[in-house]
Structure formats: C-alpha cells, structure tokens
Write a structure and sequence with these properties.
Length: 322
C-alpha cells in the first residue's frame, strides 16, 4: 500500500484552521457559521483545510483514507508549504483505466462457486492509487477537486513509516506587517490588495532594535513565556535556528513592509504570533531588550508581547532529514 507525501498551499482566510472540527447540533443552539455543513446524523462540520483536502483525496482514490498534516495552523493562518501524508491501496490489478475513474466489476461467471465468508474479497476496481500511475497525475487529479483557496504544490511517494509530524526536523514561519504612518495619514494608506495576508500597523518601528531582540531568541530555550495557555505540550523547550526582521517598501507610497522570519525545530501554540507581538513592542519602544530576556528566562507569559492576529502569519516550509 503506497504512502504519499503531499505539499499544499492555502489561503487560510476562509477556513476554521487546519484540523477537522465537528459539533453536535442541539435545540436552542445559537446560529452556526454559514460555511458549516450539516450531516444526516445531526453533526455540523466546519470548513477546515484538513476536511477539504481529505474529501478531495477520498474522491480521487475512492477510499476512506485519513489525512495527517504536519502543522495545525489556526483560523486565518496561511501556508505555502504545509506537508500532509496518507496511505491508500496500490494494487495495479485493482484499477480500471483513466485517471480517478471507477469501472464496474463484471459479474461472476455462472460456473464460479460462491466465495465463503472466510475467503478474501477481490480488490474493488478503481480503488486506491498505484505507484505506477505516478504521483504527478495524483497531484493533478487532486487539484481538479480542490477549491480555489487550496492547491497541491507537489506530490511524491514516501516511505511506509513516513510521519509528517514526528519526522519534521525544521519549520519556517513568516509574519508580515503593513506599517503605515499614524492616523490620520495612515488611514488613507491602508493595505488593500494584501489585506488578507498582512497585519496593518499604524505606527513606526525600529527594525534594527527588533533584530537585536530577535537574536536573543535564537538557540535552545524554554519558550513557556511565548506560548498560549493550554498549549498541551509536555515540554516547552524548543530550538530557534534563525530569527530576523527585514524591511522593504510597502504596497502604497509612504508605507513599509516589515517581515519577521522564524525557523525552528518546532513551535508551541501561538508561539510565532507571540514572538511577533514581542518584537513589535520592542520596535515601538514599549519593551526593552532586558524585558525580552526576562520573559525568556522566567517563562512568564505576562512579560512577553501580545499575540498578533493570524492574518499576517504564513507557514513557509517544513523540512525532513538532515
């Protein structure tokens, strides 16, 4: 049974995060989101990336497979390099002709004896995706079934034991800020075309100072002070390989585009957004480098900066192996 590794990109604006979310509908319940889908068993399914991708894969391989994703991005968070994996049937003899099509089984000949309950069932035609059909054809078949805000970037055959969560050795996130002058001038210079992918900030930022603070976070540390409550992890020790802040001209005259990039072995819940909020406070002059050191050393969440909105956050890539 082949296992496939799929890299996908998505605009997270209209999703309730990555992970599948279901809820039972009860009488007197307040109105649910308009994009929720009702099932016959009285369960509402919210629109999530995992559910959308899983449905597309199931339609393509004709099996009730489970999709596992490497990173559980929150509502509104984007991704350019989310990695998922799934296993399906791959017996070439089980397939009919054509991409993703199912052909009907021919009825058994009258002289063929009926199968006993213990006999293995013959493979169902049109089920699964054998390696011989090619991962590139699988990628194209999936894209034909995915909505406009999700795209399969690449597809490859993975080892049978490939785990996109435990096998990841490093991940990279970016957080992008649209920095405009303070009001009233800044109100006329809001980001329009990129508003779904940036956090708009009407202030001034000292990028050099932000980079000094970012350098303090590099290395292995206990990031308890930079994690949301209820993160659910056994340990809050993580390694940051690189953290930097860059500045370029913005979308419109008089604005700047500030980009925070963080690469690490793994991240806690809201960790990158809290790192971003802390660096913004330093750039605004509201926090000192000593206060960043104190937040890191003490593990006190109150000493770090605010959690930035999800809009500007993007999962850039995930790497495996050395």
């Amino acid at each position: 049974m082949p296992r496939y590794k799929l890299t996908i990109a998505y605009d997270g604006t209209d999703f309730h995060g990555w992970q599948c979310q279901e809820m039972a509908v009860r009488e007197g319940m307040p109105l649910l989101p308009s994009d929720a889908v009702a099932r016959e068993d009285g369960v509402m399914v919210l629109r999530t990336v995992q559910d959308v991708v899983q449905r597309a894969v199931r339609e393509t391989v004709r099996e009730m497979i489970q999709v596992v994703g490497a990173s559980r991005t929150d509502s509104g968070v984007h991704a350019k390099g989310q990695v998922i994996a799934f296993t399906c049937s791959g017996d070439d003899a089980a397939h009919g002709e054509g991409e993703g099509t199912m052909t009907e089984q021919a009825p058994a000949a009258p002289t063929e004896p009926p199968q006993s309950p213990q006999s293995p069932k013959p493979p169902q035609r049109g089920v699964g995706w054998p390696i011989s059909r090619g991962p590139e054809r699988l990628r194209r078949a999936l894209n034909s079934r995915l909505p406009d805000d999700v795209q399969a970037i690449s597809c490859e055959v993975a080892p049978p034991d490939f785990n996109p969560i435990r096998g990841a050795t490093s991940k990279a996130y970016s957080y992008t800020l649209h920095v405009a002058p303070p009001p009233p001038l800044g109100e006329a210079r809001r980001a329009l075309w990129s508003r779904r992918y940036v956090h708009q900030l009407f202030s001034t930022l000292d990028v050099d100072r932000m980079n000094q603070a970012a350098a303090l976070l590099v290395g292995e540390h206990d990031f308890a002070g930079f994690a949301a409550a209820g993160h659910g992890r056994l340990t809050t020790i993580r390694t940051i390989f690189a953290c930097s802040v860059t500045e370029t001209p913005g979308e419109c005259e008089g604005t700047r585009r500030v980009r925070i990039e963080v690469t690490g072995s793994g991240f806690l819940w809201n960790m990158v957004r809290i790192i971003g909020g802390t660096l913004v406070e330093v750039g605004r002059g509201r926090k000192t480098l000593d206060e960043v050191r104190a937040a890191l050393a003490s593990g006190d969440r109150r000493l770090a900066g605010p959690t930035l909105p999800p809009t500007g956050l993007c999962l850039e890539w995930i790497k495996y192996g050395a």
